[in-house]
Amino acid sequence: MAAPSEPEVIRDKAAMRAWSRRRRAEGKTVAFVPTMGFLHEGHLSLVSTAAAACAGPAAIVVSIYVNPSQFAPTEDLATYPSDFAGDLRKLAATGVVAAVFSPPDLYFRGSARRPADASGNGAISCLDEAGGDGHETWIRVEQLEKGLCGSSRPVFFRGVATVVAKLFNIVEPDIAVFGKKDYQQWRIICRMVRDLDFAIEIIGSEIVREADGLAMSSRNVHLSCGERQKALSISRSLANAKTAALSGNNHSQQIKDQIVQALTEAGGRVDYVEIVEQESLVPVERIDRPSVICVAAWFGKVRLIDNIEIQVPS
């Protein structure tokens, strides 16, 4: 039996669902933090947020699952960093994580023609639908997934919304925590939960940054020292833009142009810079309402995203 500070590792979907139901029957709040692993302080801050959100006894579940359906064929699924043993050590050190859900694959299904073994070999995948038995049910949050990251990653949010819905149906949490660094993702999940009547409270956790201001990301490990220094232009330009907006220079196009210039001069390749209303993600011409400046840029082979919220004084 695991020590109290060591999370129980659960691989099976039915076992995970049964675990959550037992905890709820014990009067505990099931709080859920979905991740793709290779955990850093940003992820651990989500765990702290989940613990703080529970008014009484809590059962905190962290999932570690690299979701294949949100990666396009040209993207970095094969090279996505992984350190499962290290992740377990970090989660154990928190002293509050009760279970880790790490399924082998959430899209494979057994086939009568090709029985799947324990590793999933012989199964049909969502990424291989030629046999007609693959996963073909998808969730689209149609308006919010447009623009921002959805423009350059057209399958991304379909994959995110679908896998989160699957995880919600398996873990059956009362509370789920998402980081605001992935701002569009957080808003999409909020809307999906509202529209599909999931009985789950969604909490957005603030961005955690390195001491130099770089937003924490599992992809930061792929930056060279030089690229990392250049990437600091993202957080600096966002901070400068917020200062300018709150000082009265709130014309969106001017602010966007200044950010693009700063990133380009630093050696970055800009994917987008957009200023949008916080809930609808509709672009605003002036920052005269609660807004968020969202940035995506490439430094070397690494695509980084960041944002900053601006609450306009009433």
From TrEMBL:
InterPro entries the record matches: Pantoate_ligase, Pantoate_ligase_C, Rossmann-like_a/b/a_fold
CDD domains: PanC
GO cellular component: cytosol
EC number, UniProt record: 6.3.2.1
Organism domain of life: Eukaryota
Coiled coil: none
Pathway: Cofactor biosynthesis; (R)-pantothenate biosynthesis; (R)-pantothenate from (R)-pantoate and beta-alanine: step 1/1
Pfam family, one: Pantoate_ligase
Main localisation: cytoplasm
Keyword set, alphabetical order: ATP-binding, Cytoplasm, Ligase, Nucleotide-binding, Pantothenate biosynthesis
Annotated compartments: Cytoplasm
Gene Ontology MF annotations: ATP binding; pantoate-beta-alanine ligase activity
GO biological processes: pantothenate biosynthetic process
Reaction equation(s) it catalyzes: (R)-pantoate + beta-alanine + ATP = (R)-pantothenate + AMP + diphosphate + H(+)
Quaternary organization: Homodimer.
Protein family per UniProt: Belongs to the pantothenate synthetase family.
Name this polypeptide is given: Pantoate--beta-alanine ligase
Source organism per UniProt: Eleusine coracana subsp. coracana
Gene: ga14182
